[in-house]
Amino acid sequence: MKLLIASLSVWLFALPSFAGDSIFLGSSTFLGSEIMGEDRPFMVYLPPSYSVSKNIYPVIYLLDGDIHRFKGFVGVLESLSTETLEKQVQESIVVAIPNTNRSRDLTPSSLREWKFKGQILDIFTQTGNAKQFRKFLENELIPAIDTAYRTSQKRVLIGESFGGLFAADTLLNSPSVFTDYLIIDPTSLWDNDYLNREFNSGDKAFKPKSRVYFAFANNSHLGEIGLTNYKWGTTFASSVIDSTKGISQQQYFENETHGTVALLAWYNGLKVLLPCTK
Fold it and tell me: Where is the signal peptide (predicted)?
């Protein structure tokens, strides 16, 4: 396994007419994965103090990590972790992981036709590769990041929608890969209540030491589909909260939808999972 030299630089913006210095946000590179059989791109953000200190830092792994989500999330994190907003959370490294095949890698079971009460919600060519993608994270990407940067033992996984489904499945089946989980409006409707069925399966004792923050949106405008996704999701979240003896929590954002809830989830979730110890 080899961490390749950064191939691109990611710039937040540059204003040559007004200043001579560009504002650097992070770097984009890739890792040749034997597990996935493909090159996997990712982007890395280092906190402002990284170059002037010898500190070690938590690492946040951001799923669905396209350039827009990367820039948006890093903006929230840096604001909260610096004097801009009174250092409410810890400075952290961010590793954003773009998708190469979203439905393949983020779903835990194989479905060609995704149905709810006989209605076909979507049709896929590839699903059910979550276990292998998780193996890539655990055995290739995380070791590469730990080798290249000054990282602490604290690792946070952030996933939304299908990414939230993946994060929840990771919590159930490999909880020690990450110490903390920020799960945003997960696709709980997947495979006829997969998460609750997996949680209640008799062949495992679920006793995680992880702290989890769940954020749920108001999707009542989607009718029974939205209401059921919320019901199954909060049922799963309540089971996790009970199992983690109250160190985890869930929050409902009545004025946000599935597509808008992420910003508030990041803001509130980071304060719960990465509070700054002043």
Answer: 1-19
**String of b and e for 184-198 (b: at least 16 CB within 10 Å)?**
bbbbbbbbebbbbeb
Q: Which residue's entry shows tokens 């979203």?
A: 102
Structure tokens at 110: 């194989």
- Domain extent at residue 263: 8-273
Residue 129 lies in a domain: yes
List pLDDT tens digits, range 158-188. Answer: 999 999 999 999 999 999 999 999 999 999 9
The H helix count followed by the E strand count for the chain is 8, 11
Total domains, the chain: 1
Query: What is the CA 97 to chain-centroid distance, rounded?
Result: 9
Two tokens, residue 153? 């033992």
Residue 246: phi and psi, rounded to 5, are: 85, 0
Cα radius of gyration rounded to whole Å, the chain = 19
Q: How far is CA 126 from CA 31, 74, 129, 173, 256, in A?
A: 22, 31, 8, 21, 30
